[in-house]
Amino acid sequence: MAKKQFKAESKRLLEMMINSIYTQREIFLRELISNASDAIDKIYYKALSDDQLVFDKDNYYIKVKPDKANRTLTISDTGIGMTKEELENNLGVIAKSGSLAFKKENELKDGHNIIGQFGVGFYSAFMVAEVVTVISKALGSDEAYKWESRGADGYTIEPCEKATAGTDIILKIKENTEEDQYDEYLEEYRLRSIIKKYSDFIRYPIKMDVKGQRPKEGSDNEFEEYVEEQTINSMVPIWRKNKNELTPEDYENFYTEKRYGFDKPLKHIHISADGAVVYNAILFIPENTPFDYYTKEYEKGLELYSNDVLIMNKCPDLLPDYFSFVKGMVDSEDLSLNISREILQHDRQLSLIAKNIKNKIKSQLQSLLKDEREKYEKFYKAFGRQLKFGVYSDFGANKEMLQDLLMFYSSKEKKLVTLDEYVSRMPEDQKYIYYASGESIERIEKLPQTELVADKGYEILYFTDDIDEFAVKMLMTYKEKEFKSVSSGDLGIESDASENTSDAEEGETKDLFEYMKNILKDKVKHVKASKRLKTHPVCLSTEGELTIEMEKILKAMPSGQDVKADKILEINIHHEVFQSLKDAYANDKEKLNLYTNLLYNQALLIEGLPIQDPVEFTNDICKIMV
């Protein structure tokens, strides 16, 4: 019998896969059981369209049988089996998938629960086996065939005997080495634990002959061993189980098994809806931000099942963008197995499920905020930015949905606070929700513009995210209170009577500031006396909707938008520097030019804006020193 060679690329892929694709050898059993489940599924799908074929679920199962004496592990199924040609095509070319071909032939859209559709999992058997033998008899065929391989060297196919349709995969387990104990894959307890860990939700019974002990009949002290066939898996998907039966560890294990993330979920949501639309769902709020979350490569979406059969790996229509961090699955009896992506987008049932899920997620987040503040803050540090994007996007269509979930750092509380908490503390005379923007909390705390607001005892929200100001501009108000930047031209705060200036002083000041404005030309819109400064000599404020911080963000974008905030140079007329400006205006216009440029550049530095000519600025400082 001539040995057939794997194709060159398949041989190389097999070597790579055994050595690197799977980091845990125990995965091989999950892969082979999944393939066995696929084989039974194929009979089920054929029965849907073939009146001559009756599918009785009780007749279908998977059997796992270790044999220590012969060092073999056999995984048998009562599935559809394979012809000689299918053995050749499916097992002779790695990554050629019988399941995928079956799916295409039967036009089952977007993937159902035929797990082995990439055709690689079978070859994981070579991680633990020195020889892999496949004995298979196709449904409706009188012939059976044996496929056998020792790995990358090639394989043989020959006729053999098999009484019933289905497939037996026999692994000749490798001998132990100093590094690896292959014996464990012949141990009943180890096999049971692997099956429970990875294959508990397979829909067909996974059976094993299990050894036990019982009292010997007629004796109280003597025991006898017995062997009993047991079903190892629960066969009930976790989402169909009663919530009261499940522990937090069950949900965490499900999260890990489904590879939703490498972290632990911060919170889970188990939904069993039985109303206008019937569905089950398990959703997870992750603890950490995925490395690619804020990139174009990140794909949002939930796994979508119909009657436990996978329709789509990631259904984006189930989640709004602002909740795209949520992981999990949805299973509904109201969706067709043959539904396409195009139909799904317009499916009324799916829209109802998506709306319900959206509300459940918000409700869970609100509950987390109220009852587990520390957990919510951890979540918010990971995904709060996405919520703020949600407020800003779609022209603010979702702001009502999200505004109560937002948090910002508080000047008074020295921690994150909600908008509701801020407003509830506002004094009666406070007109606005005040905020200050900057690169960090430390920089904002030093901003001169915060002086008047802080002096009045008003709380200030610190905006350190580039999206913050854009989000509140879209919000406009919260509980009928407008947002106001501390750098805004009008803060809505009355100045003290003691700080008012006489008409004569105002006239003198007006001429001085007009002169300074001419020096600065179009760099500023106005120069004026400041009502917000207490101890600092100078600052910049703005007129209009565009603030300095927004200007910086827009200019830093890849498109490099050429935008410019309308800046106002504010001078503290109660500071000693103002007397120097008046003296220079009266006696030395050249010195006034020097002072004006210095003050303007100082104001730019405070804002973190670039100085147009750093050399000129340093030379101006030197002129004052000599």
Task: Characterize the structure shown.
- 35% of the residues lie in helices and 22% in strands.
- With 626 residues, it is an alpha+beta fold.
- It has an 8-stranded mixed sheet with strand order 5-4-3-6-2-1-7-8, with helices on one face. A 6-stranded mixed sheet has the order 15-14-17-16-19-18, with helices on both faces.
- It is elongated.
- The model is unreliable at 95-100 and 108-119 (pLDDT under 50).
Strand pairing plus helix content: what structural class?
A: alpha+beta
Residue fraction in strands: 15-25%
Shape: elongated
* Average pLDDT score: 88
Major sheet: order of its strands? 5-4-3-6-2-1-7-8
By DSSP (H or I, 4+ residues per run), the number of helices equals 19
Number of strands: 22
Query: What are the low-pLDDT stretches, counting only 5+ consecutive residues below 50?
Result: 95-100, 108-119
Radius of gyration: 36 Å
Helix content: 25-40%
Biggest sheet character: 8 strands, mixed
Distance between the termini: 101 Å
Key features of this structure:
single chain; 626 residues; alpha+beta; 8-stranded mixed sheet; 6-stranded mixed sheet
Summarize the model shown.
With 626 residues, this protein is of the alpha+beta class.
Topology:
Layout: H1 8-21, H2 27-49, E1 62-67, E2 72-77, H3 84-92, H4 98-105, E3 129-137, E4 144-151, E5 154-160, E6 166-173, H5 188-198, E7 206-215, E8 223-231, H6 248-257, E9 265-274, E10 278-286, E11 302-306, E12 309-315, E13 327-332, H7 341-345, H8 348-371, H9 373-392, H10 399-402, E14 407-410, E15 416-418, H11 419-424, E16 433-437, H12 441-445, H13 451-455, E17 460-463, H14 468-475, E18 477-478, E19 481-485, H15 503-520, E20 526-529, E21 538-543, H16 548-556, E22 566-571, H17 576-587, H18 589-607, H19 614-625
Parallel strand pairs: 1-7, 11-13, 16-17, 16-19, 20-22
Antiparallel strand pairs: 1-2, 2-6, 3-4, 3-6, 4-5, 7-8, 9-10, 10-13, 11-12, 14-15, 14-17, 18-19, 21-22
Helix pairs in contact: 8-9, 9-14, 17-18
